[in-house]
Every structure is written in C-alpha cells, then in structure tokens.
Specification:
The protein is α+β, with helices and mostly antiparallel strands and about 425 residues long. It contains 19 helices and 14 strands. Strands 1, 2, 3, 4, 9 and 14 form a 6-stranded mixed sheet that branches. A 4-stranded mixed sheet has the order 11-12-10-13. Strands 5-6 form a two-stranded antiparallel sheet.
Length: about 425
C-alpha cells in the first residue's frame, strides 16, 4: 500500500514516519506500507500525474493550501481521485483494531478539513501563528502584561525601544502569506467570496477589504516608526528567528513549529520566553484565527482490504501516543483532544508552558465561531502576491490601497487560470 507523505524537511522527520510505518506493519503483518516523502508542493503535482496514469497512492498528504487541489483532483475518466474519510469510516469505532480518532479531533482542525458537512481528510500536522515574547526584555521596559491587541503591542514596542539598553527594534516577523490570513481572520474578514471558498468554490478574491487595509496600515506604521525590523527578504523565517533569539527584538510573530527551537535558544541565552495568541485588532471584536498544516487523503475506488488498511494506518498515525509524540518532536499542535490530555497528564505542559499557547489559541477561536481558513485555488502562489505587495509598501513606499488593488488583479488572474484548468464542479 503506497502512502505519499509530506516531507517537511525537519530533522529526523521522515525517519519518524518510516519508523511508524514499520510499527504498523508489525501490528498488521498482512500489510506493507510503502512510504514516499514528497515536498508539499511537489506532492500535489505528483499525485495529479499519477491519477491520470491510474497509479495514485492509497494515501496522499496535502498541505492545507492545496486542499482545493485535492478536492478538484480527477483521474483520466474525470472521476474524483479522493473520497471522504468520514464517509469511508462509515461510523465505525475501530478499523482493523485501530481506534477511530475522527470524533476526537480538535474542533478547529475538524472545521478546517470539512467540506460540505463531511470530514474529507484526516489532519496530521497542525500549526498556527503566535506571538513570541522575550519576557525578560519586556519586564526591563516596565511592561507587566504580554500584549493581546495590535494597539497594546505597538505601545509595548515603543516602551521596549525607548527603555535603557533596549534593542534597536521591538518586533519582527517573516513577510509570508500566513500572517495576512490570521490578521484578516481575527477581524472576521475573508480573502475570497462564497464564504472564503467554504460555501462554494472561491471565484473572486479581494485584498483591499477594510480588514486587510487595517492590517497593512498597522504593519506599515510599525515599520515607518522604526519599531518593526524588516529583513528585506520575502518569507525570511530564519532571519527573523535569529533576530529574536539574538535579542535584537523583544517580539516575533511566528509559526507553532518554531516554538521548540526558540525555547531552547532562549534558555541558552538566559531569557524568559513566552508564547501567546496572535494579537487582534481592538477596534473590532475578536473572531478567531486560522490553522495551517497537512492532512491525509484517501484514494477513491480502493478494494475493501486496501481501503481498510489505509484507514487503519491513518488512525494509527493519529492515535494519542503518536500525536503526542509528533507534538514533542516538532512542536506541532496535538490533533486530538486525547493527545492533549495525555500530554497534560504526563506533566508536559507544566514543564513546557510555552507549548500550550497554540492549543489554547485554537480553543479560543472555536469558542467565537471563527470561520475556517480560505479554500482558494492556487492559494500558495497567491499568497506570494500578497508578500510582494507588502514589500513594495514597506520598502518602496507604495500606496497601500493601490498596491493591494494591483495584487488583487494579479491574484484574480491566477485564480481564473486555476478554475479554467479545473472546470468540474465539486
């Protein structure tokens, strides 16, 4: 049975997946799991080619931005490549002795991978975006509480920079598509029509909404006033990480998967480290946040034995023990409530409090009925359009509304091409 899984290029990442494959085979000797690691963008294209040749894998892992590609994928006969995981499970509580985890999935993750009322894929890797804080530096500046709003974060940044011996800048983050998603989501906005692509296929995008303009204006203001440190590179995760752990800034917005490394470097450098939720705009009610990561998709048309073997392997990967270990190794959010409980019972969060932040953020988001993330064709590349627009605003002083209107036009052309290439309705 072929399982094409996302190789996220973290240390020992694929080694762990190969080990889990062997463990599953030991428990189920009638099955052979042939794991192939693919880049998250390469994987979607590889599956599409294989589907046209009739050789698609039983299990394929897609990055969250590629969810429309998975939903739209068809074989040479024009039939859907994948079937709903929830439908294939069919209400069973165990498959080949492996407990089914579908009803245990964290609500925000379940919403992310639900389409037309059904859980279509099983989340594996889960991340979100948080505020990283050098608490030691914050206290030295006389700031008692970690900021929760954009407005409080700006005020704290001003105090940090003005404090005796303070850093030259206060905050940094990578110019990447993910913070745009979060900034719009916390305000209850959308990037695309049809409910952000959730009520039907996204057909139009708009990057000039009041939510987007509020975020861009706030970000630009931090930069113009010397508070935000921009490295000048698009998607500069490493550069902004170094700025934070070298204590050249007090704050950094970043992904869940950076927490473990940041915590270790903070301990080595001797400063107190904290992780809190992505800040929100105090001028509008908080509406939650989005989630990134990957999920497993089940091929349609499999024979019963292969289908159940694939489903059993999915449940095995998501069981509390393995999901908890995923979290410990790579800082990913525990995908099930049972995995979180297991970690809490072991005392993991008491010893590593900064690891609670992402799960707490998703729980808070679910409590305010936040909308799941956008489903937009060619979303990964469209996000790059946003980063280029922001670069021009920050570096070249471009008018933000004009530049993001231009970005909207460019992204719309990309979406139109995607829809033309995927004409069949879901």
């Amino acid at each position: 049975m072929d399982a094409w899984l996302a190789d996220l290029a973290f240390p020992r990442y694929m080694d762990e997946l190969f080990r889990l494959g062997r463990r599953f085979e030991e428990a189920h000797p009638e099955y052979e799991i042939r794991i192939r690691g693919l880049g998250f963008r390469d994987g979607a294209a590889a599956v599409a080619r294989a589907a046209l040749e009739g050789s698609q894998p039983a299990i394929a892992e897609y990055y969250y931005t590629e969810m429309p590609n998975a939903l739209d994928a068809v074989d040479s006969a024009g039939q859907p490549v994948f079937t709903s995981v929830e439908n294939a499970v069919g209400g069973r509580t165990h498959i080949l002795g492996e407990p089914v985890v579908l009803n245990d999935i964290v609500p925000a993750l379940r919403s992310q991978y639900t389409w037309q009322g059904e859980l279509v894929s099983l989340p594996t890797v889960a991340t979100t975006f948080q505020l990283f804080t050098n608490v030691t530096m914050l206290r030295a500046a006389g700031v008692r509480d970690i900021p929760q709003t954009w407005q409080d974060l700006r005020e704290a940044s001003e105090r940090v920079v003005k404090s005796p011996g303070g850093p030259p800048y206060a905050i940094t983050w990578a110019n990447n598509g993910i913070p745009f998603q979060h900034a719009v989501a916390v305000q209850g906005g959308a990037l695309a029509d049809h409910g952000n692509g959730r009520d039907g296929r996204a057909e139009t995008v708009d990057f000039t909404t009041k939510e987007m303009m509020a975020w861009v204006s706030w970000w630009r203001g931090l930069h113009e006033d010397g508070l935000y440190r921009y490295t000048g590179e698009l998607g500069d995760w490493f550069g902004t990480f170094e700025l934070f752990v070298d204590q050249q800034v007090a704050f950094r917005l970043s992904s869940t998967n950076d927490i473990g490394a940041a915590a270790q470097d903070a301990a080595n450098a001797g400063f107190e480290f904290a992780v809190s939720r992505f800040p929100f705009n105090a001028e509008v009610p908080y509406r939650g946040s989005v989630v990134a990561g990957t999920s497993l998709w089940l091929a349609d048309g499999l024979d019963e034995a292969t289908r159940d073997g694939a489903l059993a392997f999915m449940q095995f990967l998501g069981n509390p023990r393995n999901a908890a270990q995923y979290h410990k190794e790579h800082s990913f959010i525990p995908i099930t409530k049972s995995a979180f409980t297991r970690l809490e019972r072991e005392g993991w969060f008491a010893e590593h409090p900064y690891h609670r932040g992402p799960s707490d953020q998703l729980d808070l988001a679910a409590g305010v009925s936040s909308a799941p993330g956008a489903l937009i064709g060619d979303f990964f590349e469209i996000q790059v359009v946003l980063t280029r627009a922001m670069h021009d605003v920050l570096v070249r002083g471009a008018d933000q509304r004009e530049r993001f209107a231009q970005a909207t036009t460019e992204a719309q052309e990309m979406l139109d091409r995607y829809l033309a290439e995927h004409p069949l309705p879901r």
